[in-house]
Amino acid sequence: MAVALGATALAAWAAPGASRTFWTDALWHTDRVGSLAYVSNQSWQGVLARLAEPYEPDRAVWALGVVVLLTVWAVRVRRAHAAGDHAASLALTGVLACLVSPVTWVHHLVWLTPALAVLAGAALRTPGGAGLRGPAVWAVAVPVLLSSSLVWLWSGDASGADGFLGGNLYVWISLGLLCALPLRPSGRPVSGARDAAGAGPPSARPRLPAR
User: Fold this and answer.
1) Were both Cys, which of 75, 97, 119, 183 would link to 139 (CB 3.0–4.6 Å)?
2) What contacts 24+ positions apart, CB below 8 Å, involve 151-158?
3) Could you tell me how far CA 70 lies from the centroid of its own chain?
4) Rounded to whole angstroms, what are the CA distances from 59 to 46, 66, 127, 149, 189?
5) Is 181 within 8 Å of 68 (Cβ atoms)?
6) Reported confidence tier of residue 193, pLDDT bands at 50, 70, 90
7) pTM (2 decimals)?
8) What sign has the CA pseudo-torsion 105, 107, 110, 116?
9) How far lies 143's CA from each of 107, 164, 167, in Å?
10) Which residues contact 122 (CB under 8 A, 6 or more apart)?
């Protein structure tokens, strides 16, 4: 946030006229960047736009979905923070940004890269994790799918069940990463376990019978 604000202030100082035009006018004309329904828009809003085409997507439905995504993100980041897994916290935040942004062109999905690094780390930490559901499989499959350009098969027509599934493939991958990205175990004792192990105050430790 500090970098974004600093860059914005620097741009306003260097080009005040252009900055004023962008923030007061151009920013609000979303049609200048292309159609929200274009298959390259792999965000939650893009899914809704393709479903509603040729009409505008329902903003209330979009906002409700954003609230749900924020809730899932908050729960998972809290768990990652409790485990001391700061890499996963960063990765989950990048995934969330791709999902809730009104426009997420495919090159914006570079923010999924930290999640791919977390997947790779989980695969390296998990012995024998190469089964169909193992992290090693997903650490390979997810980057391959993201690099496959499969969504472009529906660039002309994203209607129908196949268009819904295939034309939004990168959105489904982002959702999967948000909900199921592996978190590193904290290794910390659960609250109360320290006392049960005899590490609490003397009065809380069990007494052994005298021989």
Assistant:
1) 119
2) 151/39, 151/40, 151/42, 151/106, 152/39, 154/39, 155/38, 155/39, 155/40, 158/37, 158/39, 158/50, 158/53
3) 10
4) 12, 10, 45, 28, 45
5) no
6) very low
7) 0.74
8) positive
9) 14, 21, 17
10) 129, 135, 139, 182, 184
